[in-house]
Amino acid sequence: MATSSKVTSPMAAAALLLASLSGVNAFWRMDCHSPLGLARIDPLVDYGKIAAHSHIIFGGDNFSPTAGYDDLIASESTSCRAKEDKSAYWTPSLHFQHSDGTFEVVGNQGGMLAYYFLRDGGTGQQIKAFPAGFQMIAGDTNKRNFTGPVPDPPESDWTADELTQASLAEKALGFNCLNYASGKTEPSLFRHFLPDKSFLDANCADGIRLELSFPACWNEAAGVAPKGSKSHVAYPNLVQDGVCPEGFSTRLPGLFYETIWRTQDFVGKDGQFVLSNGDPTGYGYHGDFIAGWDVPTLQKAVDTCTNLDGTLESCPVFTLQTQPEMAAVKLSMPADLKNENCAGPESTLPGNVPIQSGPQPATDNHGGVAAPTYAPSSYAAPSKPVVPTVSPKKPVYSKPSYPGSFSIQDIQNAGVASTSRIATSEASSTSAAVYVAVTPAPSAPAETDGGSIIGTTTYTSDGAVWEVAIKEIDITVTAEPTGAARRRRHLAQHRHIGDSHGL
């Protein structure tokens, strides 16, 4: 498993290492740099009506309360980077309730990323492009509890209860505490609830990243858009990877949303964070998707854009826009919503949505009133929602894979014995798998893996400046029955060291 002497550049070494790891598949990140708008529009749940709560919306400019595939395909432009992607992506917005009872939207950092993962669960199954008319919903707006153990146990220890679709859907939500200066990053889908304000103030200096994984298994017989847009799809048994359940045999791209909110702007201010659907726990986070792709174009991208770096530049199928071009694309606001101020400050959440902390399910609130009359809402120091405590200081790395990363489990799958480990300072206290991040990491992170850097290079992608450091590290390989042997291995780490734009 030694690195070939023909590999002469750090980037080539990184690509070779990633390509050698079973379980790490191609993906790309669809950068939707600026939202179309913030509005109570949701054509999947409240078709033709004013939606119950506000959403932050990205994608094709023909999005509307009645938008469907044909409308989106006919969009003149999109707020996402690839001109070919006229899809619609939307999630609830995040708001802050001040101590005087008023609400204002939390600032969004850099739009959203929609990851397209090309994972087949090791089956060799073809991944099929989203068909014309395809739509789906992930998450449950009324959910206010979590039924599984906290934190997630290693996937190899998941019980039958934890492998149900209901449990997998609970694990498909993530709330990633961002603190780049700390030298530590949390795995995606590590925490399944929204931390309270005191935790965010103390630990998340760079905000909170809300994450959502969509089902990637489709029952073609159920159609592309059944009522409710959930019954036709299912999660593979590892949420983002693994095997599809019986009856859902068609493999789709694994869609994954990331949206960053600037909770750090409210440090020292009295109040609470709450999603626009009245959820202060995060358990009711959800998202919607309507495909707006020309199907042959998307299928060509799925079949041919199989690089492991996740950049759109690696895929010649796409015609890429600049950030100013994306930012110029805005929603045509329906007449009955033009006077609604979803951003605030206002005395209620948009649509007069009540705050419901659970743990019982929230009640539906589909008033659908136009230009609502805001009634002052009483404010009291919020009672803490029923959420567990998971410290970011000692994260438990229990996922075998997450966006843009690979794990020791991937190396094990490539033929290294199960006793092998890449040691880090955080790993000594846990028996769970340890991750080597290649997604954005803080500037000058602490060198904790014991390796020595043998080469570096930098490159720019999607406006971000990255450094690739190639390290040589020791790993132990157990060869039965002769025992263990030490080997040297080249390891690639991608570090986010800055931005080429003013985000």
Walk me through the structure:
By secondary structure, the protein is mainly beta. It folds into two domains: 25-337, no CATH class; 401-499, no CATH class. The chain has seven helices and 21 strands. The strands form six sheets. It has a five-stranded antiparallel beta sheet. β20 and β21 form a beta hairpin. The model is unreliable at 1-24, 367-383, 390-449, 453-463, 468-494 and 499-503 (pLDDT under 50). Residues 42-293 form the DUF1996 domain. It comes from Mytilinidion resinicola. InterPro entries: DUF1996 (IPR018535).
Main-sheet strand order equals 1-7-14-10-9
Largest sheet: 5 strands, antiparallel
Poorly predicted regions are 1-24, 367-383, 390-449, 453-463, 468-494, 499-503
Protein structure class: mainly beta
Please report the total strand number as a whole number: 21
- Average of per-residue pLDDT values: 77
Distance between the termini: 41 Å
| Shape by Cα distribution | globular
Protein name: DUF1996 domain-containing protein
Pfam families: DUF1996
Organism: Mytilinidion resinicola
Keywords: Signal
